[in-house]
């Protein structure tokens, strides 16, 4: 199937272009971006023009930041195109609900992707936790924003999520591996004095069976990132590290190898399947936790942040 990629920036270049190039399902038939392009691929700056001139492109994948994404998604659905959304699927829950309703009305596929759910060991972690009694779970998601988002001011502008931009990856794994849903009960959000989104956060969740569930996010972690979920249960301790790429149970590393390699190749395989089935996959639970943190979170002013 022909696909167009919109918003040619860091993630499009790092992950989407290679995943599409290496997939038997997809041909990258066009890009739409105000400045970016991909060698050898017809490049548009005007989305309307692409939609009009390229009716054979039935699928679009949106890689721009969350705030501008809604307008592109809406136009695409109204033009009868299937839509794949980078995470988070929108800047607000209401936008996402509106897109889902529109996709149902226009009978197109819509996929809210959560790339971290496709990490190698997430299915094994989910399977291991399924029959255990959880006592305590802690998310540690700490990285250096200067290394992972160099100069990307949108992450510190309203709607850019701040440290929840990586934190939502942890929440996408949490909501995938826990056999029961949790909900947020407390949050403390550290906003740099000169920015509109938090640079660090601590959250606590209510677990229906009384387990202690907490999350620490920090964007000023020097050196190697820490992307770890530790779950203590009645039958041992599971440590999911490396953003879901490494799983250890009571010190024993899970060496099993998944089939298809890579988070983004798996996302594109799932999008192909969704389009074939005419399906919609809009699980908003990770974004709901973030929205709750912003609703309930106590705001603390942190030192100003500059790149
Ligand atoms: P980015 O490089 O800053 O932005 C992607 C592209 O979007 C930009 O190059 C720009 O292309 C376009 N864009 C920016 N602002 C726009 C606007 N107001 N209207 C229309 N287009 C706009 O961001 P990114 O790191 O690729 O992240 C994009 C999305 O992917 C985010 O939702 C992020 O959470 C997610 N993501 C990022 C990473 C990562 O490691 N960076 C990993 C996984 C997921 P033009 O100037 O050419 O239009």
TrEMBL record:
GO terms for molecular function: nucleotide binding. Pfam families: GFO_IDH_MocA (PF01408). It comes from the Bacteria. This is Gfo/Idh/MocA family oxidoreductase. Transmembrane segments: none annotated. Residues 2-110 form the Gfo/Idh/MocA-like oxidoreductase N-terminal domain. Gene3D superfamilies: Dihydrodipicolinate Reductase, domain 2, NAD(P)-binding Rossmann-like Domain.
């Amino acid at each position: 199937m022909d696909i167009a990629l919109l918003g040619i920036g860091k993630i499009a270049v790092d992950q989407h272009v290679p995943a599409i190039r290496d997939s038997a399902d997809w041909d990258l038939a066009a890009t739409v971006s105000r400045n970016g392009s991909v060698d050898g691929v017809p490049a548009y700056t005007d989305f309307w023009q692409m939609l009009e001139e390229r009716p054979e492109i039935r699928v679009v994948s949106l890689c721009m930041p969350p705030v501008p994404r809604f307008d592109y998604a809406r136009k695409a659905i109204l033009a009868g195109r299937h839509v794949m959304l980078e995470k988070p699927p929108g800047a607000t829950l209401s936008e996402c609900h509106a897109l889902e309703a529109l996709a149902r009305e226009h009978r197109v596929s819509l996929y809210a992707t959560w790339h971290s759910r496709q990490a190698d060991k997430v299915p094994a972690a989910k399977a291991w936790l399924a029959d255990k009694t959880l006592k305590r779970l802690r998310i540690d998601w700490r990285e250096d924003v200067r290394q992972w988002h160099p100069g990307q001011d949108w992450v510190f502008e309203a709607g850019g999520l701040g440290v929840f931009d990586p934190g939502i990856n942890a929440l996408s794994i949490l909501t995938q591996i826990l056999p029961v849903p949790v909900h947020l009960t407390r949050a403390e959000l550290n906003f740099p004095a000169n920015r509109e989104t938090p640079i660090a956060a601590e959250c606590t969740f209510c677990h229906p069976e009384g387990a202690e569930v907490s999350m620490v996010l920090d964007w000023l972690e020097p050196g190697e990132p820490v992307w770890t979920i530790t779950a203590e249960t009645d039958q041992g301790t599971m440590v999911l590290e490396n953003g879901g790429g490494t799983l250890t149970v009571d010190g024993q590393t899970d060496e099993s190898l998944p089939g298809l390699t890579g988070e983004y190749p798996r996302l594109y395989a799932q999008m192909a399947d969704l389009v074939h089935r005419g399906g919609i996959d809009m699980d908003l639970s990770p974004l709901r936790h973030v929205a709750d943190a912003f609703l309930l979170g106590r705001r603390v002013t942190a030192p100003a942040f500059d790149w």
